[in-house]
Each structure stands twice: as structure tokens, then as C-alpha cells.
Prior knowledge:
single chain, alpha/beta, Rossmann fold, 13 helices, 24 strands, 28% helix, elongated, glutamine amidotransferase, CbiA/CobB_synth, cobyrinic acid a,c-diamide synthase activity
Amino acid sequence: MRGLVLGGTASGVGKTVATLAAIRAFENAGRTVQPAKAGPDFIDPSHHARVAGRPSRTLDPWLQGDDGLRRNYARGDGDVCVVEGMMGLYDGSAASTAGVAAALDLPVVLVVDASAGMESVAATALGFEAYADRTPHDLDVVGVVAQRAHGGRHEAGIREALPDSLAYCGRIPPREDLEVPDRHLGLHMGGEAPLADAALNDAAETLRTDRLLDIAREPTLPATDPEAGAAGGDGREGDDGGDRPRIAVADDAAFRFVYPATRERLGERATVVPFAPAAGDDLPACDGVYLPGGYPELHAAALAEGPALASVADAAAEGTPVLGECGGLMALAEALTTADGGTYEMAGVLPASVERRERYRALDHVELRARRGALTADAGARLRGHEFHYSAADVASDARFAFDVERGTGIDGDREGLTEHRTLGTYCHVHPESGAFDAFLDEVES
């Protein structure tokens, strides 16, 4: 599967819209597109999935390692893969878009905000091309997409100023209906604020699909990889699960931050039973519970009124393994205070109260070391993940923590992972390549 990376000069330059337009342009040219996202993002991939009609693959060297990243790429399915970068091309102390492109040996097309520039767009792109020689990565910056660029003289000035080494790959017109609204954790999800098809089609027509196809190339992947190939099912109820354990996975507007690879890994060993706590669903019969991240702070009243959290508390007290990540941690706490000052009773499994703050409290790749055997790691094992949250937890003095923080910020400074019974609540999002979900499933099966 050929691929290319759309890297930006900075955050906010319009990489997501350019990626969606590229997906649509390739589809209009008769190609099947596999979207992907550099970095640990959950939100941008939701837009990719809506436009492409298939899950977006997560590519992050810190979470997965280079080999895991390549395996995840290889599990995609399509004629061409469009990888949206994160932040600026070279930004990221633990992982970067440049690192993802280098790990796969994919070419980079630079997305430049051209709303207030013309020849300077070319100068910016030329600087990014030259800077590749100052990095440890073997990187090819080969083209430019001019974001928020008008046609006519504006486009011509950009195109004519580019050196021969940088192909002009088209533009994204400056239109209000080509801007996705955002909030405290990033853009609105794809199902909440989708771009209108007419606007997306117009943007796709201004891209040079022929040049993008010429630029895309096959990545560097292991010669033999037993895990490579198209991803299978996610093990949802109705699949042939036999006597496999049942994992209840919260899946609604409050809990939506799940990597496709996580669903696949759970589905390889268990029957996945989705339920919607914020919509009033009760906890289904299960052998384990996974509460992923999301927006419980936006649905706290519905969660407090529904039956699911009380049932999760009962299951936890009975010894059912329960894993809560970020939003899941918030739901497992005793109480949640929202941005408007309302306080709502949560599951009460973990001895903490959580409050939404105005500024983010953590945004980083993290590394944890297990103090003792935990739900997702053996004692002494290191676990890599990612944290991004606006809430802070007030933790009881006798609370037990599963991890010491080697890198990043924990729930309580240098401690992370509140644990009670066989329940773990953590701000850390992990990828299945970390082995965390295999450890969780081992615990469910024990």
C-alpha cells in the first residue's frame, strides 16, 4: 500500500482539512484510501473514518516502537494511505511526524497556511526541506499543499516561487465551511461536526491528485511479518466467540477514545460487548469492563442518573477486572465537578474526586513503571502511553497507586494508576502494542 505523509508547519495550519480533502480526491479518482494519523490522537481519526469509511490507523513511535508502527500500517487496507501529521513536522520530543515518516520511509507533503503569504510560502517550505538534514531522520520533503489559498494570482505566485525540488500539490480554498470547530480537547469529533460534502468536494477538486499519487510510494516494512495484513473483526457480540470471555466496552458520546487496534486486540481474545452508559444502558453481563477516554465531563448528569456506573461499582466490588483510561478514571471516581461548577456522583470505586479545570493539566507522552503487579503490567514492567486532560484528581491519603511516573505527569505528581479491588483507573492512554491489553485480558481469563 503506497502512502504519503501530510505534515504541517505548525499546529492549526489545517492538516486535518487537507487530509480529508486528499482522501476525497483520491476516492474521486477511483482509489481506495486507508487513512492514518501520526501521534496518539483520537479526534482527527474520527473525521478520517467518516470520510474514508474505514478506521484510521494510529502511528506513534513512542507508543508502538518502530516495528509496532510498521505492523499497524501493514494492517491497513487500501490502494493508498494518507497519513495526517501531528503538530509541526519536526515537533515532539518523544515522537514526531518526521519520525513516523522516516520509520516508514514515506515522502512528506508539507501543509502551509498561505492565508497571509505568497512567495513566503515557498520560503517556509524550502526551510522545512533544508532542515531535514539537521535531524537524525532520513526524510524526504517533496511537495506543498497551500492551505487557505485563493486561486488566480495568489495560487500562481505560490506555485511559481516553489523550487523544482518541491512539487505544487494544489490548495485548500479559504472557506468558513472548511473549518472544524474545536473545544478543550481539540476538534469536535467527526460525527459531531462533519464537513459538508459539497465543501469537501470543492476542496478535493483544487488538489493535484495526479501529483499526490506520483509522490506516494511503498513504505519500508519487515520482509516477513506474521501480524501484517488487513485487520480482522473487532470481536463484537454476534461474532463467533465460542467460550471466550465477554468484555463490556463503553461506547457512546462520553466514552469514545479507543484506537481501532485496541478493538482488534480485544476482539482477538474476547467477545466485545459495547454499551452506552450516557444513553442509559446498564452494564451487560461480562467478565471484564473497559471504560475508555472521552468526555464524561460533558455528560456527567446523564452518567449520574443512569444505571451503568452503579453496576460497574458492584462488578468491581465482586472482583471483575475493570480498566478505566482518563475519562474512564473520571467515571470510576467518587464525584466529578464540571466546568460550570456542578458536582455529580460517579461510580465511587476509586478514592478520588475529579474536577474539570480551565487549562490542560497534562499533555505529553509518558512512561510508567509498575510498583506491583497491576491490571495492565507486571511488577517492575515499564508501560508507555499518552496523557491529555483538563481535569485534576483530589486523591484520598490512603489511596493505592499502581505506577511510578518515569516520564510525564501522574495523577498525584510522580504516582499514577489508582487501584482498588481488581480495578485500575489511570490518566494514561495506552496502545495495544504496549502489551497492556494482553495483561488485562490475562487477568480477565484468570
